[in-house]
Amino acid sequence: MSETFLGMPATAPPGVGHLRGTEPFPVAARQALGDAQLRRNLGHATATIRNKSAAVIGEVPDWPRLREAGRAIKTDTMARLPELLEKLETAVTGAGGTVHWATDAVAANRIVTDLVRAAGADRVMKVKSMATQEIGLNEALTDAGIEPVETDLAELIVQLGEDRPSHILVPAIHRNRAEIREIFLRAMPGVDPGLTDEPAALAAAARRHLRETFLSTRVAVSGANFAVADTGTLAVVESEGNGRMCLTLPETLITVMGIEKVVPTWRDLEVFLQLLPRASTGERMNPYTSMWTGVTPGDGPQSFHLVLLDNGRSAVLADPVGRQALHCIRCSACLNVCPVYERTGGHAYGSVYPGPIGAVLSPQLTGVADNASLPYASSLCGACYDACPVMIDIPSILVHLRAQAPHSRTEATAMAAAAYTMDHPARYAAAQRAAKLSRLAGRRGRGLPPPLSGWSDSRDLPDPPARTFRQWWAGR
């Protein structure tokens, strides 16, 4: 009889995984903006995905209703999350699987490492997984003497290049074909020295490299796009077939899944399998949709373990405004329309979750103080909200988190003075008359001295009007 312990609102531990950057976003973004090749790669890739996605979404007359349905299901799921997770545990266990509860990244890494050791393996093959990137599983396995092999093509490029993912859907979106060829020639064992940068040739090289791994590795680690509470069914969607190989060939399968990925019923899954491919890859359906329920004797892995990961998610759930971020289905549509992401790329965010969704999810998982610059990594244009297939109001969450971020003493003093002035009509009128003195600050406020220049460095100080509203009104 297993006991279930649901997480308390604690944030993800520092020093483990990939949720915190080493630099604030403005510093990292400034460096990224200086890389012209990076901007060209990102601009081309995001425009291509946007156009494909828009075309297939335009084919669906009830797309707005599907989005509403997705949002409603996610809202209901978050309201009943403890109940649904326990229901999922019962169903998975009843189907022959084993469920493990990981309060944070440290616990999840320990659970997976112990399971691999218990299976007598020193190598695992991995399906692309944001959750395992989040907790730094590859590093934990390597430290334990276990070799992790990424089988997704883009993740393999990142791994061989000793790089970091920069996109949720396409981790190597910041690399072009010539750069990928150089990585393969430098780091892929046995690669043909005459390898070209044609996509088919690069894919064939990766296929040859991975074939031995698929056939000889006894343990696989995956994430999960969805889990059905009613049946205990897990689902992984992908485009290359590597996931199908990892999910069916090994003796032991370990799935690490964020607790927010559960859906109540099989029928709810139907909605997301329509929303996800069109919003993410611009496809009508995913080429490979793999589903499994526990263990089936003689068919597929004979040992299945599901690791349910909290790692700050309970803290996100505790915020009535911020919990919308847990609705995310990792489609990356918000990244592909974001003007900030398109120019800086994912590495500037310092987290495995980049772009608009990362700007609201990462600070909540770590605590806003640990990622205080990310809620400001946005122009608040609202394109992310328009693109999101489950209608997450990212701009509103950004504003909400900005209110929680630490503010400098100068800014706090200025805001307090503004509140004091605006609270009394006479003081406000006097301030309006004095506003004409702002012309002394120079054009757009560029002449302000420190610390006031911290405001005008990134904002334009508007020119004062020739007449205030009060003056105009008095004249009429």
From TrEMBL:
One of its GO terms (biological process) is lactate metabolic process. Residues 404-475 form the Lactate utilization protein B C-terminal domain. SUPFAM superfamilies: 4Fe-4S ferredoxins (SSF54862), NagB/RpiA/CoA transferase-like (SSF100950). Residues 85-295 form the LUD domain. Keywords: 4Fe-4S, Electron transport, Iron, Iron-sulfur, Metal-binding, Repeat, Transport. The keyword Electron transport applies. GO terms for molecular function: 4 iron, 4 sulfur cluster binding; metal ion binding. Coiled coil: none annotated. Signal peptide: none annotated. Residues 325-391 form the 4Fe-4S ferredoxin-type domain. Residues 440-466 are annotated as: Disordered. This is L-lactate dehydrogenase complex protein LldF. It comes from Micromonospora yangpuensis.
